[in-house]
Every structure is written in C-alpha cells, then in structure tokens.
Amino acid sequence: MNILLIVSGGIAAFKALELVRLLRKAGHGVTGVLTAGGAHFVTPLSLQALTETRVYSDLFSLTDESEMGHIQLSRAADLVVVAPASADILSSMATGRAHDLATTLLLATDKPVLAAPAMNVRMWLHPATVANVATLRSRGVSLVGPDEGVMACHEFGPGRLAEPPAIFAAIEAFFAPGRMAGKHVLVTSGPTHEPIDPVRYIANRSSGRQGTAIAAALLRLGARVTLVSGPTSQELPAGASIRRVETAAEMLAACQAALPADAAVFAAAVADWHVDAAAQKLKKQPGAAPPSLVLHQNPDILATISEPGPRRPRLVVGFAAETENVAANASAKRLRKGCDWIVANDVSPATGIMAGEANQVHLVTAEGEEDWPMLPKTEVAARLAARIAEALA
Ligand code: C5P
Question: Which residue's CA is the nearest one to ligand 1's atom 7?
C-alpha cells in the first residue's frame, strides 16, 4: 500500500522516522511531506533516506509541469497519514485552509485520512482543538492517540504522540485483509440527544461501549466499518469511517447516506421521541406552571433500514434493551422491526449492564434463541463480529 505521510511541527516529529521504518519493513511505500514546522525537527534528507523516495515540502515547487502536481500527489496514496498532527494542522484541516503543500494535499485528497495528534496537554484540551477534532471526526477523519503521559514540556496529560507501533497498527487496520475484507458494515452506537431548547436535551444512559466494541471487532476482521455514533466519551476506533450525530433524525440520515452495506448493526439507544424544541432557553416564570414538553415519535432507524428493497443490507441486526420478559419481547421485536437478528439484554438497573463493562445477551434469529454467558462487552463484540462474518461468507 502507498502511504502519504505528512509530518507537521512538534518535538514528536522525530518519531515519524520510526513509523516510516516500520511501514517500509512491512512493505508499504511511503511518500513524505514535511511542513515548515516539521522541517525544524526532521530533515528532508533523513525522511528521504528512510522513505527511499523524494520528499515534498513546498507547494510551489510542484507547479513545475515536470513535477507531480499536488492533486495527483494527494490521490496517488491509498491512505494519508498526518503524524504528528499539530494543533495548527488540525485547525487548518477543520477549517479547510490550504496555505501550504500539506494542507493543500489534505484538502484535495479523496483518500481516507488518519491523524496522530501531538501537542501540549492544554492545547489538546482547549475548546478550539476539541471542536476541531470533533469536526474532523464527523467528516470521517480517523485519529490514533494522543497518549497520556509526561510531555516534553514536563506537563502531564493527554497530548503525547501515540507510539509508532500503535500508529503502525492503526494504519495496518485500514488494509488488513481478513475474513471480512471487502465487506462494508454499518454500526450505530451510543445515545441520542434530543434538544428541548438550545441548552437542554433528553438523553439516556447508553455509554456507546458495546457499539464501539462491535465496530472495533469488525475492523479487526478486515471489514470496512461506518460507525454512526451519538454523543459519547468513548474513544472511537481508528480505521472506521466515523459519523458523529446528536439526534435520531441525524442518525437516520447518516445511516441512509452510508448505504449500501453488507450488514448493519443497530446498537444505538435511540430516543423514541423528540421535543418541539424552543428556539430560546426556557425560563422559569414566577407563579406560572412549568412548561410542558410536546413529544413526537422519532423515526425507527432499524425498522426503516430493514424495509425490503435493493438497498437493504443482507444482514440487519437490532438490539433490544429490555427490563422484563427479555426473550419473548426480543422475538416479537425481531418480527415487528423486520430485522434478521436481535441481540437482547436485560438493562434493569440491578444488572449494571447499561453503563457497565460486561453484558449478558441472547441472540434471537429465525432459527431460535441462544443464551450467551455474561461476558465483557469486548468479548460479546468479538463473538457477534465472528457470527456476522460467518453469515456473510
Ligand atoms: O424499539 P426499541 O427501541 O426497543 O428497539 C431497539 C432497537 O431498535 C435497537 O437496535 C435500536 O438501535 C433500534 N432503534 C432505532 N431507531 C429508533 C429506536 C430504536 O434504530 N428510533
């Protein structure tokens, strides 16, 4: 595979050389691009020696007809990797700036982008960077790291560049030929937020852990995964195309836009209703009755995607979070929603499943019901991914 590696500024830039070594050893072609900042920490010559090809560092040297144009350069790779990705380059990527070769390539590319951020902890936690990262993720940019630890500036916290082997593994995940190579799976995860007014919303206790783990397990099997995630603090798996959404309506639109898919797994806890949201923040009025919320039914994403038609995924898997009569309700739900399988679990508070690490599920298919033991959510995910691979084989 061919990788376009953009090295932006920062003390961690030297680690990019180790990443190149790992990639070359695994047989990948690497073309290096140095930003002006990156060139302060890594010389073009050292990058060139390790990539064994010419290194690009200036937009205007590419205007020569005899050179490879920047559009061509941005498209020649299978994957664009930004490592380290400074706060500045993340900001340029989020706002669509094209002020040097690296940012022009990032704006012009039609290939997946993986960024490995590295910066001071306060810069990483600054709302501006948080917003930029959220924007990039919602556009499908994958992130690996940053790690947490002592930084070059002696502060402690998240911001360290992920170690080269971890970045290498995230890159490999893009190309891993596995049992599910060539298969596309759509996964929904997390809660939805339905606004009441500009500052309040209705949500639920879903952590997004199970859906995120399923996406990661499918990626490990080599599937191409689109993960449509409601608001969650989970670290979403590098290598998935990530679509971050808030409301059920946005989730449905993102799912429809992600089709066609070979399989779809609906692990999200979607709100059943949305509110007639007030345009301004609702205020207490002395002596007046509290405002009433007018609720409207949300679209049922699982039922909509399960409708027969040319775009229906071959295998549609729904979840059923029940607090009583789990198996019976799940079987009825499978028929009502028109999906193929239901993964049912008991989410009554005593089980601790809803926001916990473990899950005990029942898999309901046309053939019957299987009771799985209590397992870590990652293990439930691995088993489910293996069953999906089997069903699509
Ligand atoms: O009807 P209920 O919410 O119990 O169904 C749960 C299943 O349906 C889950 O797979 C969930 O992701 C999906 N669902 C959906 N859209 C909704 C409600 C639930 O996709 N509006």
Answer: 319
CA–CA distance, 115 with 12 (Å, rounded to integer): 14
pLDDT in tens, 49-73: 999 988 998 766 655 545 567 788 8
195 C-alpha to ligand 1 centroid (Å) = 19
Assigned token pair, 111? 């290939």
pLDDT at site 65: 45
Distance CA 113, CA 357 (A): 30
Number of domains in the chain: 2
Q: Do residues 229 and 212 lie in contact, with contact meaning Cβ atoms separated by under 8 Å?
A: yes
Both tokens assigned to 65? 């007809």
**Residue 342 forms part of a structural domain:** yes
Residue 153 falls in the annotated catalytic set: yes
Rounded to the nearest whole angstrom, what is the distance from the C-alpha of residue 277 to the centroid of ligand 1? 22
* Same domain flag for 72 and 200: no
Backbone angles phi, psi at 346, to 5 degrees: -95, 115
User: How far does the centroid of ligand 1 lie from the alpha carbon of residue 270, in Å?
Assistant: 6
Average pLDDT score over residue span 98-112: 91
Could you say which of 130, 134, 153, 335 is catalytic?
A: 153
Residues with CB under 6 A from ligand 1: 188, 248, 266, 268, 270, 272, 298, 300-302, 318-320
| Token pair 């992130």: residue | 143
Q: Whose CA is nearest to atom 8 of ligand 1?
A: 302
Residue 179 included in any domain: no
In a shared domain, residues 317 and 357: yes
Distance CA 367, CA 358 (A): 26
pTM value is 0.61
Taking residue 389's Cβ as centre, other Cβ atoms within 10 Å add up to: 20
Residues 127 and 31 in one domain: yes
